[in-house]
Design brief:
The chain is α/β, with parallel strands linked by helices and 498 residues long. It has three domains: 56 residues, OB fold (Dihydrolipoamide Acetyltransferase, E2P), CATH 2.40.50.140; 239 residues, Rossmann fold (3-Layer(aba) Sandwich), CATH 3.40.50.150; 150 residues, OB fold (Dihydrolipoamide Acetyltransferase, E2P) (Beta Barrel). The protein has ten helices and 22 strands. Helix 1 runs parallel beside helix 9. The chain is globular.
Length: 498
């Protein structure tokens, strides 16, 4: 195989994350954005030994797993919903197999642990999202052109392109209210005749549209992001937005001025055009105030499933060792959702650490909303804050960014030698990279599960319970997946008899 050569083949399976594997006589080919069983045409881009990376040129034949029609007009050009033609059960099974395989390999490679027959863990399966479509509570849309010098568009980038922006007014990942807002904003912006901000020459005005909403409360927060290269009266846009017929209700409209060269949603200056600059969400009986840049799980309903599993894992500390309620450190705590849920149900005290000061301020307000006196938050970098936290916690909860835990922070976290660590990861490869450090510090992977917060996409959340090894510990036998599927299918059949 050589760079530029074109081959036809069938995708055998998908390795995490989103790597389709094609087995050819010439060697193994990896390609992104495919579905198991598709016959595809690919072009070689890189070649290493007997493996190659390729670009998907064309789907020649659909996969047997593709049992439904696309629900979005931009599919498959957008690339945001790679798996939307697959039935949801097939998506879940594929993601579950990927995550379980990654964790199993990581545990088996832990040479410092137990004999081979004990190098295993309890697999708690995958939890599917209650809503398969329309689940995202946050979306960042970009302004641009679908073709060079074409009319202004607002939507998502074309797959594989940093410049082309597709008009995605019927995006199936967001609630239809957000699609309605997008259409209104695009219509207004086109009428002004002002150009979008071009990443090449850094000239132009319109940059992004950020929309956030609440699943439980129906509140919507709208942010128009522009450069400072024009002085536009946005009053007519506010009037048009407030006149929209929506299922939810707009609670705030903001104008974010961003003159940075980076193509990211941020604000040098924020103007409140109407309403307030936050919205409320409710999860598991608690209320959370969420501001523009506060981290919050993107799928509120699936987040509840995730948090229930975290609380279940935290309870292992009390159940197994018959101990009192624990002191918990929640590192990378965002707006303090997990911290407060732990404080309200499991912990005697919960301390959240978060870098973004705005998120910490919102978290502190949320503790007052929820009448929690055993919940505290510290603003700062985990790497530095840990030096000042002298009291040893009983449990540490980690929910780091996609790239995982900073390598300098990891030794400090492990030095506490707490009984349990709960690691939540939205990028399993980062989690697997970090696991050997936990194993080397005397921890074993006891339980793990996946939570699908990102339906139709390759992404999935992983939750791991890591327990500190003791000489008399024995590791429970993992679930046999064949038995697991039979049990789950039987339960589904019982719930939904035909």
């Amino acid at each position: 195989m050589k760079k530029g050569e074109i081959y036809d083949g069938v995708i055998d399976h998908i390795d995490y994350p989103n790597r389709g594997i094609i087995c050819l006589d010439e060697g193994i080919v990896q390609v992104k954005n495919g579905i198991p069983g598709q016959k595809v045409r690919v072009q070689i881009q890189k070649k290493r030994s007997n493996k190659a990376e390729a670009r998907l040129l064309e789907v020649l034949e659909a996969s047997p797993l593709e049992t439904r029609k696309p629900v979005c007009s931009a599919f498959p050009a957008c690339g945001g919903c790679t798996y939307q033609t697959m039935d949801y059960e097939s998506q879940l099974r594929m993601k579950e197999e990927q995550i379980r395989s990654l964790l199993t390999d990581a545990v088996r490679q832990d040479q410092s642990a137990f004999p081979d027959d004990q190098r295993t863990f309890i697999w708690d399966g995958i939890l599917g999202s209650p809503e398969e479509f329309g689940y995202r509570n946050k979306m960042e849309f970009s302004f641009g052109n679908e073709v060079k010098d074409g009319p202004l568009t607002l939507g998502l980038h074309r797959k594989g392109s940093t410049y082309d922006v597709l008009e995605t007014g019927d995006c199936a990942l967001v609630h239809r209210d957000l699609d309605t807002v997008l259409a209104c904003v695009l219509s207004f912006c086109r009428e002004t005749g002002l150009p979008h901000f071009h990443k090449g020459n850094h000239q132009g005005y319109f940059r992004h549209l950020l929309v956030r909403c609440s699943a439980a409360m129906g509140e919507i927060l709208i942010h128009l992001v522009t450069s400072s290269q024009a002085d536009l009266d946005l009053t007519p846009l506010v009037q048009k937005l407030l006149a929209l017929k929506l299922e939810g209700r707009i609670v705030g409209i903001l104008h974010l001025i961003n003159d940075s060269l980076a193509d990211v949603v941020q604000s040098d200056r924020t103007e409140l055009l109407w309403g307030r600059d936050w919205f409320y969400e409710r999860l598991m009986g608690l209320t959370f105030k969420i501001t523009s840049f506060s981290f919050f799980q993107p799928n509120s309903l699936a987040a509840e499933l995730l948090y229930r599993r975290v609380l279940e894992y935290a309870n292992q500390y009390i159940i197994r060792d018959n101990k009192k309620a624990p002191l918990v450190y929640d590192l990378y705590s965002g707006t303090g959702t997990i911290t407060q849920l732990l404080a309200s149900s499991v912990a005697r005290e919960a301390v959240g650490v978060e870098l973004v000061e705005e998120a910490v301020e919102a978290a502190r307000e949320n503790t007052l909303l929820n009448n929690l006196s055993n919940c505290h938050f510290i603003a700062g970098d985990v790497l530095k804050i840990l030096d000042d936290l002298v009291e040893k916690p009983d449990i540490i909860v980690l929910d780091p960014p996609r790239d995982g835990i900073h390598p300098k922070a990891l030794p400090k976290i492990l030095s506490y030698q707490v009984d349990y660590i709960i690691y939540i990861s939205c990028k399993a490869s980062s989690l697997v990279r970090d696991l050997p450090a936990f194993f080397g510090a005397g921890y074993r992977l006891e339980r793990a599960c996946a939570v699908d917060q990102f339906c139709q996409t390759p992404h999935v959340e992983t939750v791991c319970l890591l327990g500190r090894r003791k000489p008399d510990d024995t590791i429970k036998v993992s679930v046999n997946m064949d038995d697991y599927y039979q049990i789950r299918d039987a339960e589904e059949a019982e719930k939904n008899p035909s």
